[in-house]
Amino acid sequence: MNRLAKCLANYVPLTPLTFIKRAALVYANRTSVVYDRTHYNWSQTYERCCRLAYSLRSLNVVKNDVVSVLAPNVPALYEMHFAVPMAGAVLNTMNTRLDAKNIATILRHSKAKVFFVDYEFVPIASQGLRLLIAEGGGVKSSNQPTIIVIDDITNPTGVRLDNKLEYEQLILDGNPEYSGEDLEDEWDAIALNYTSGTTSAPKGVVSSHRAAFLSTMSLIQGWEMSAEPVYLWSLPMFHCNGWTFTWGVAARGGTNVLIRHTTAVEMYKCISDHKVTHMCCAPVVLNILLEAKPDKRRDITFSKVKILTGGAPPPEALLEKMEQLGFHITHAYGLTEATGPALLCEWRSEWNMLSSDHQARLKARQGVSILSLADVDVMNTSTMKGVPHDGKTMGEIVLRGSSLMKGYLNNDDENAKAFRNGWFLTGDVGVIHPDGYVEIKDRSKDIIISGGENISSLEVESALFKHHAVLEAAVVAMPHPRWGESPCAFVVLKDATHTSETEILAYCENNMSKFMVPKKIEFVKTLPKTTTGKVLKHELRKVARAFFISQHEQTCKKKV
Q: What are the residue boundaries of the AMP-binding enzyme C-terminal domain, all occurrences included (predicted)?
């Protein structure tokens, strides 16, 4: 059997580029993209991608060149997920909330050949480009990217930069017969995504065509996405390439409903008008939908909308409320290094007989591995041995499989830390339940150690969220004279609700172990977050360090 050889017929490199070619053939006349008054079918979307890929080659973009883009969820950003790799290049989607310094840092580190900028972000991108030029001695050089503006496709603004290049002109100038460069090795890079940097400097995560293909296939299977879905882009595409659903919607011949701003009005309108079946989002978006006033909502009772949520563990009470509103929630866990979601909380039919609160507790777990992973475990990283599957013993979540990243770009030190003994270390602390489902307890840096007891900030947050007045909560460590550190809770209250620190603390004492009760409740208007909904706990820790417990009075004060 070893003498049987691979050939062009039985071995084709795995790549999600095959999905759009199939969509253009099988679903040619089905609507592919909806954005305001702009509609395309799959035949048109494929042709636009071919044209753009040709124009990129005309701009001297070659294999492994990086093409960066700073844009919201607009048709151009969707098309670039196919057109850029068709040209043999690597797509780098930037977080739209980056400041000028971070934009310059990514352009420099990635050595981007081309930089697409949505008209709305031209001012901040221009600042970043000036910083990049200043770093180069104040003179433009051939190492700086070619800049192309993405104007509004529905209502053009005319905004341009120095070279006057504009996205739609590249589409017009491109060759519709161009089918892209041949992919010889599925290990080639398809995407470069920079981590959000909530706990450290952003790192450039390189994903392969193979990883993107396998992760996409696993997610559309694990989420049971049937053919011809209508998918609402409430999740930024810059976040792990839209958790691979940029490619996945094409694979199922679906419709991409694009919105520039993730507001309750826009989401409810699109769900109602286009009969949305699927959407992805961080828990912060669930709150936007849940807290919307009646005049901002639309009827969505035609069927339940399937939501895949992740990015931050959603409280059980939030999941239960969303189900009552008409959304069917599936919880996922992933990270940029895993090319999107790595675990899904697959639902079991026997759970349908359980009470709603029990179901919500099960849904809050991160779940089991997607099919592209070979293994997942929770380990004591000192010994690299798995912890007992008892739902109590904590360790670090580790992964291995072909959908993981190739590694961090030009960062050998971080690669050595991330990969150990054949495993990828996620930095997330969790447990495994007897049924094999993983549940995150915290980031390793967010565990609070009080008097030798490990306190999961997520458990305290989950309990706080069940209070009738609490909209959001984030828990971090603060100094304690006896226990070393103790929990401090930052709380956002719902509109038109009133409560006191004393009331919240009394509630905590009745709903959690005494050692877990926060020593301080700090009411805030908003929590600092990344665009993907992750709370920037390092910023809250800075504030919490200013609080201290008087050893004699056992009351919380602020350092002066």
A: 459-534
